[in-house]
């Protein structure tokens, strides 16, 4: 072996050691220079080899903006961000959303459907254990799913499983879902934050009250709405779990939360005030993560109520909005421009070739003339609790619409009772929607003709025909084309204006590292920062 090849072999071994965390930076540089590499080249080699290599150790402290003393360990009641993050830290799910937005395995290692997607089979990882030491089996999965099914369940996830007629096991590590109608999205639905795996009791119920789980960290102490302390579960079945311990601290006040981050009392926070984002970005000790998501603001118009029963009026109102200015002045750039169909680039099957509804007051004016609605005057209801700046958003939109001869009277509604007294009751209002994992889930909830939450009362026969077809279609290419046609129908005929999809904007200390991509399903890397992130070595 020549000297050159010997040295190259040494460098390759050093690079592998850096990638696996088997060598310190100092030793790496010393050995590299001994192999004839210059100091600057050795530094570059270390950076490329170990830049994103997770390091073990430390206690990760997270300030969370939303938590209640009324929270519980019952997964059917999960509601706050504090419980969603805690659930993904101490419990597991059948499947998970990867940082790149794809669907990945959690306690299920693989899944498959029959030809019409009316039966799904999930193979389970045989090495999953609860923090109590009990091995997880199919009985635990079935009991965990049945917790959200049946007439007596109080779970918020009941509607997700209405098509499931039965769940049975095929041995200890295979679970079969039987559906009354085909659903190609079932593996995606299993990522819903309510559907956590809990230990089964002998009677088929689940033991949720103990807080036992199969996640990367086990609960040591905790007080709902205040703080939880957790330590690493050495029997966790996936990669990650790099911290020795985790503390989740509820800090509802934005000033207190950001002060704790600046002073180093916490290592990351789940939400920052967009007005202060620029100031925080100038702090060299902090990093802002600004992640596009499928969470959005909608403006539904009752399609069965004048003047919104006229398609030309609806489209005129879509063209009378300057979305770019709204994103700049209301969302401070932390948003993705929407196009009046409820399907985000953060969702699968996103159609990227539909013409954008841009600000065009002249075209809007022409459409109003065609509809015989020149000089249109309408009310638009909003409340500040919907989204920070929701009322200002409407005021700015009203200014845009004047150029099209439209008078929009912004009605500031009370925060209290907005969703019981205004949403689904008044013909034009502003609504905040959380992210949904797939277009089928979103369209079924709010755009299907008979959906309880069909907020625009839009009824398009072709849209509903496609919705049923796409739901059971297992061919991804065919399914994508169906969703494209549905998006075009909503874009051209629908009764919902969608200004933007909001970004998840959170922050961390600069010594906290993560992978190249961040999941867009929830704040803090799909609520999995505690298992996916690490401290810089």
Automatic annotation (TrEMBL):
It is found in: Periplasm. InterPro entries: Peptide/Ni-bd, SBP_5, SBP_5_dom, TAT_signal, TAT_signal_bac_arc. PANTHER family: PERIPLASMIC BINDING COMPONENT OF ABC TRANSPORTER, PERIPLASMIC OLIGOPEPTIDE-BINDING PROTEIN-RELATED. Residues 104-448 form the Solute-binding protein family domain. CDD domains: PBP2_NikA_DppA_OppA_like_17. It holds the Pfam family SBP_bac_5. Belongs to the bacterial solute-binding protein 5 family. This is ABC transporter substrate-binding protein. Keywords: Signal, Transport.
